[in-house]
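User: tokens in, sequence out, please.
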């Protein structure tokens, strides 16, 4: 089993920054590749970013150039640095592994005011 714990969310004004963290516990053999997703009220969950075990990353077009994902394998932790936030980034943010997709954390709320 895998336990994912997200943290680092908060309330910021437009143009601000936040750094999210996701720590994996348990069977972490499947968490070396990790994705970030977000879900805004009344909307479907959407892909934000992905990072693989070699540090390669990909991003949704809506966050490209503003968000950066990275990971520390020794700490079983993946990060999402979010810069130049705008109100459209307001959502609950979740991490998830494509190799053990059944496990989701509780999420961390990001709220951006204009």
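Assistant: Sequence out:
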């Amino acid at each position: 089993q895998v336990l994912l714990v997200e943290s680092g969310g908060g309330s910021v004004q437009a143009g601000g920054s936040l750094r999210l963290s996701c720590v994996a516990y348990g069977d972490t053999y499947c968490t070396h590749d990790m994705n970030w997703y977000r879900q805004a009220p009344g909307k479907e969950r959407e892909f934000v970013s992905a990072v693989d075990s070699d540090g390669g990353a990909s991003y949704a077009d809506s966050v490209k150039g503003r968000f950066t994902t990275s990971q520390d394998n020794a700490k079983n932790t993946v990060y999402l640095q979010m810069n130049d936030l705008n109100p459209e980034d307001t959502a609950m943010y979740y991490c998830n592994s494509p190799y053990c997709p059944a496990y989701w954390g509780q999420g961390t709320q990001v709220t951006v005011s204009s």
